[in-house]
Amino acid sequence: MDKGYEKEGFETLKIKSSVANEFRIFSRMLSKSQSMTLLLMMDFFKENGISPVESMGPHMETLEKRISLLIKKRMNGMIAIMKDIEKNQTKPTVAMLYSLFEHTEPPKKKLILAKKSGEEKNEVRYREKKYLDTNDNEQWKK
C-alpha cells in the first residue's frame, strides 16, 4: 500500500488500453504503484512549472538557469561560512599559539648523544703496533 493513502478508496479513469499498458510498464520501472507514479508525475510538473503540452526548449533553459543559480547561492553560502570560520576561529587561534611559542622558545642545545660527522672521519680506528727494541724487552723481563 502507498504510505499516507491506505484509507483512501480507488477511482477509475478511462484511458486507452495501449496508454494503460505503457503506464504500467513505466510504474514498474519506478518500482511504485500506479497511483504513486501518477502523483509523482503531477508533482514534478507543478514544481518545475512545466506543461506537458509545451515544448521543453525554453523551459529547459530556465530550469538550467534556476539550478545554476541555486548552486551558485549554495557555493557562496559555503564560502561565506568558511571565511567566517577562518576569521573568527582559525586566525585568532593561530595568533595565540604563535604568541605563546614566540616568547617561551627554549634555546637550542646540542644533544649529548649527537655524533659529529667531521670528527669521525679524522679519527683513526686502528693503530699500528710498535715493535719493542731489545732494550725495551729487557725492561719488561725484569
Notes on the structure:
The structure is a single chain. This protein is mostly helical and 142 residues long. The protein is 63% helix and 0% strand. Among the domains are: 13-48; 53-103. The chain contains 5 helices and no strands. The mean pLDDT is 76. InterPro entries: BfmA-like_N (IPR048012).
Form type: elongated
Unreliable segments of 5+ consecutive residues? none
Chain-averaged pLDDT: 76
SS strand fraction: under 5%
Oligomeric nature of the chains: single chain
> What structural class results from the helix and strand content?
mainly alpha
Q: H/E series, N to C?
A: HHHHH
Cα gyration radius (Å): 44 Å
How far from one another are the termini? 118 Å
**How is the biggest beta sheet arranged?**
none
Helix content: 55-70%
Number of E strands: 0
Keywords, separated by commas or semicolons:
single chain; 142 residues; mainly alpha; BfmA/BtgA family mobilization protein; BfmA-like_N
Put the structure in a nutshell.
This is BfmA/BtgA family mobilization protein. The chain is mainly α and 142 residues long.
What is the topology?
Elements: H1 17-30, H2 34-48, H3 57-103, H4 117-122, H5 134-141
